[in-house]
Amino acid sequence: MSPNPSAPPPSGSKLRRRAARFRVARPLLLLLLTLSLWPKAGQSLAPVDSRASRYEIVSHGFRVGTLQTNFSLVPFDGHQALKYSSVTHIHASLLFYSLDAETKEEAVVDNDATVSYRRSSQRNGSCTDVTGRAEKDGFHLDVTADGVKRSLVFDRKLYDHTTMECPELLLKHEGDEMTERILDFETLSIVTRHYRWVRTEDVAVGEGKVRCRVIDFEDQNKKGRRWIRQDGLGVIIARQDGTGKDGSYSLRMTKLNSKG
């Protein structure tokens, strides 16, 4: 994205303000990892075999990227589990600042718990790979960042859910609140996250509308609001607005396809 070539050159202060707006694209590659959400056991939902969604990423009025997500049923340990995959593209270009980035992510969830996780990302030539798996003692992560390797183990007794799950579905009524310990695959740490069901309202998606719960969430690293609706494969996020340490963003669903 570049300035309008027919417009008069902006002042230095205006250019600095615009560059600061584009810098919020950096955290988007990781903040969007919280979109991998799953239904809880015992819920009766219409059967859906797969779902594909497309999103537009906007920051301060600028379109800075896209996100494509897919949910499907896959064989796992003799039965079917849920697989999530996504591809995020970010492109921001200005006189004093540019960012080209791509993130690919996959996770498998079985019996309400994340059993495997993988993420690969590149940002302006810098590469990071994360591979994780659930074992008896906790969740194991192998991280490689620009060739430097490290391993992490998170004790299962120290967290309630991962960011691949959807604890806010436990809220029963509008106005309900709760606090959970979350294994955050963005920061590779356990955070304490607070949730509140604000209200229920319709959100426009393409030419139609989706009836959604409006959920506020906040932890020590970020806060936001998401508009969610549950189906047989997990949770549809029609919209998400948030802020992190580097800025703000808005994610809007533009297309939804489900197959039964």
Largest sheet: 15 strands, mixed
Number of helical segments with 4 or more residues = 2
Domains, number: 1
Strand content: over 45%
Strand order of the largest sheet: 8-7-6-5-4-3-2-1-15-14-13-12-11-10-9
Number of strands: 15
Q: What structural class do you assign from the helix and strand content?
A: mainly beta
Cα shape: globular
End-to-end separation in angstroms reads 38 Å
Based on CA atoms alone, the radius of gyration comes out at 19 Å
| Mean pLDDT level | 82
- Contiguous low-pLDDT stretches (5 residues minimum) are 1-34, 38-47
Order of helices and strands: HHEEEEEEEEEEEEEEE
Estimate percent helicity.
under 10%
Protein name: DUF3108 domain-containing protein
Organism: Geotalea uraniireducens
Task: Outline the structure in words.
With 260 residues, the chain is mainly beta. The chain has one domain. 7% of the residues lie in helices and 62% in strands. It has 2 helices and 15 strands. Strands 8-7-6-5-4-3-2-1-15-14-13-12-11-10-9 form a 15-stranded mixed β-sheet, covered by helices on one side. The chain is globular and about 45 Å long. It starts with 11 loop residues before the first helix and ends with a strand. The relative contact order is 0.18.
